Amino acid sequence: MAVRRRSRWRVWAAAAALGLAATGCAAPSDTAGSAGTPNNSAGRTSARPSTSAGAHGWSRDRLRAAIAKHAGTAHTAKATPLNAQVGAVFTHNAEGDHFCTASVVDSAGQNLIVTAAHCVYDPTTGQRSDLVFVPGYRTGESPNGVWPLVSITVDQSWKDDGNEDMDVAFAIVQPQNGRQIQQVLGASRLGINKGYQLPVRITGYPSSVDAPITCANNTTEQSTTQLRIDCSDYTGGTSGSPWVTDLDPKTRTGTVVGVIGGYQQGGDTPDISYSSYFGDQVQALYDRATG
């Protein structure tokens, strides 16, 4: 069975320069680079997604109704303000290879995204460089701009030996036109110690297609340090996809309680996904990233 989200970046990563600046954190410099099955697409600009009330979409009640009716079935995600906070991670620019997913998370600096650690740092070869975040990307278009990653923060246990219980990374992105990404798109909150059984929606970018997919279901406990969810068609490229609960269409926010990663780097079959549990260690990592 083919590995779906386990990193396959090594073919080109050895040639990539490692050079993004470190955050002002106590730990050693952490920076970006990456993984997955490449997909070449031309980046073009287009109009921003609709911000009408109807486009906001997923309330908590709608999420539960979707789980009751279509639990675990993925479909193409609509272009909404909430989905615009999720994007593909590319090498170089929007014409490069997209291989992972990330999303905007609330921070005082208004410049933070969250993804899987294996998307941006390999314990054997180190940090990965020359990455950009393209929120709302679809069919070759970059409706919300291209945001270079300027620093990343991963846990020391991931850097040392790829600790699957800390397969989480935070990255600061460069401001564009004098504005931070959260000022442009908004952001979901970070959810810490929220438990193991939660209704969530996962939106992510398979590297084989040029549009995000989304799926709603309830999480379960894989272990005390891992979450599991059954959602179809989450193939290579979906690592880092946010697991969002408590969706509020009025504020266009939710709470991110996981990202595809962790056990088997997110899963070795397309229909079962995992996440490192967001507990105290992830809170400490966030504090380092924003400190």
Topology (elements, then pairings):
Blueprint: H1 10-13, H2 53-56, H3 60-70, E1 75-76, E2 86-91, E3 98-104, E4 112-115, H4 117-120, E5 121-122, E6 126-127, E7 131-135, E8 147-154, H5 156-161, E9 169-173, H6 181-185, E10 189-190, E11 199-204, E12 213-218, E13 220-223, E14 226-230, E15 242-248, E16 253-259, E17 272-276, H7 280-290
Parallel strand pairs: 10-16
Antiparallel strand pairs: 1-12, 2-3, 2-7, 3-4, 4-9, 5-6, 7-8, 8-9, 11-12, 11-15, 13-14, 14-17, 15-16
Structure description:
It is globular, with a radius of gyration of 17 Å. 15% of the residues lie in helices and 29% in strands. The model is unreliable at 6-56 (pLDDT under 50). The protein has 291 residues and is of the alpha+beta class. It has 7 helices and 17 strands.
Comma- or semicolon-separated keywords:
six-stranded mixed sheet; alpha+beta; 17 strands; 291 residues; 29% strand; globular; 7 helices; six-stranded antiparallel β-barrel
